[in-house]
Amino acid sequence: MQRWQLSRNETALLDHIFWSSGLSRDALSGQASFSKSRTNAAVAGLLAQGVIETTEEQVATGGRRAQTLRLSRRLGVLISIAMGATGVEVGVLAPDLTLLAHHSEPANVRDGPALLLARIRALMKHLLQQCGAKAADVIAIGIGVPGPVDFGLGQLVNAPLMPEWDGYPIREDLKADFSAPVFVDNDVNVMALGELWRLGRSLPNFLVVKVGTGVGCGIVCHGQVYRGANGSAGDVGHICVDPNGPRCHCGNLGCVETMAAGPAMVRAATEAAEAGKSPPLTKALESGKPLRLQDVALASRAGDAAAHAIVQRSGALIGQMLASVVNFYNPSHVFIGGGIQRIGPLFLAAVRQSVYHRSLALSTRHLEIQYTPLGERAGLIGAAALAMQETLRLPG
Length: 396
Description:
With 396 residues, this protein is α/β, with parallel strands linked by helices. It has three domains: 67 residues, Winged helix-like DNA-binding domain superfamily/Winged helix DNA-binding domain (Arc Repressor Mutant, subunit A), CATH 1.10.10; 138 residues, 2-Layer Sandwich (Nucleotidyltransferase, domain 5), CATH 3.30.420.40; 177 residues, 2-Layer Sandwich (Nucleotidyltransferase, domain 5).
C-alpha cells in the first residue's frame, strides 16, 4: 500500500469497503456519512490509483445490475496462518478475503518456533506458487497463535501451552523470506476478527470462545477486538470452576481448561473405556490408538450414555465459566468454535443450559449462543482480516 498516497477521505472509504465486502456508492456514502459528491470524488481517486475495483452484483428489480466496490485484486495477496496447539493451516487470500489456496496439517507447538515456522515458510512459498504469485505480491501476513500476545511486539508472553515461544521474534522470522508486514495476535482474537468481518461489523459487542486443547475468548467491544492492557484479555481458560479440582499446567487448581477442554474430555473417555462403561469407546481404544475428541463425538451421537455424560459435564463447566463472563460483559452473542464443534448440538445445549441458569435474566434476555458460522475457517479468515485491517492503518 505504500505505493499509493491516499487522502483522509479515501482512507476512510477504503476501510468501509473492506469491512463490508462490497458496497454500492450509495451504501458507501451512507455508511461513511459522506455526501454523494464527496463519496464520488474519493471513489474516483481510489479507482484511478487501482486500489479498488468495480464488480457487478445482483440484478436490481426491473433494471441493470448493481455495481459494487471492492479492494482491487491487483493490490496483491494476503497470507494467513492459523496455528493451534496440534495443527496449523496456511492460506493465500485475495484482498477481499476470497480464499485462493490453503493447506492444513497436524503440528505440535511444543516442537518449538524454529522448526514449526520453517515449515510454515515452506508452505507459504508452495501456496504462492500454486496461485501463480510471488513473494513480492504479498501485501501482508497475519498469524494467530494459541497464547497471550504482546500485540505491539508481535510476541507470545508466558504462553502455558508453548513455553519455548516466550518472547520469540515471530515477525522477524517470517520476514526472512518476505518483506511484507507481519501481524501476530492470539488465535481467539483472530477468530473474533473473522466473525466481525463476516458480520460486516453489524454486531458491536460479542464473544468468540474457542474450546480445543485449551479454552480462550476473543472479545469484540464497540466493533473492535479488545486486547486489554497487556494483551491477555479473554484468557478465560484459567478461571476456576472448582477450587478442589485437579492442578492445571498454569499451577492453579480447578481451571476450566484443565477440567473441560478437549484433553480433559479425552482423559474421561479413556477412563470410561478402560472401565468398560462405554462399548464404543472401549472398541475405539482396542484399535491400539489413543482416543481422540472425535471418538467422543461419534460415541455421543451414537447414543452412548458415558460419552453423553462427558459431553454434558464439559458443556456445563464451560457454561459455568461463561455465565460469569456474560454477567460481566453482557454480549449480544457468544460464538463457540474450535475442535469442540465436532461434538455437535449436545455440547451446545449443555453450555446454554448452564449459562441461562447461572446468569442474570437481563444479561441473557436477548443473548444468542451458537457455534461459529465460519467453523474451522474462522482462524484462517480472521488472520487475513487482521493482516488487511492493520495494513490499511499503516501510514501511507
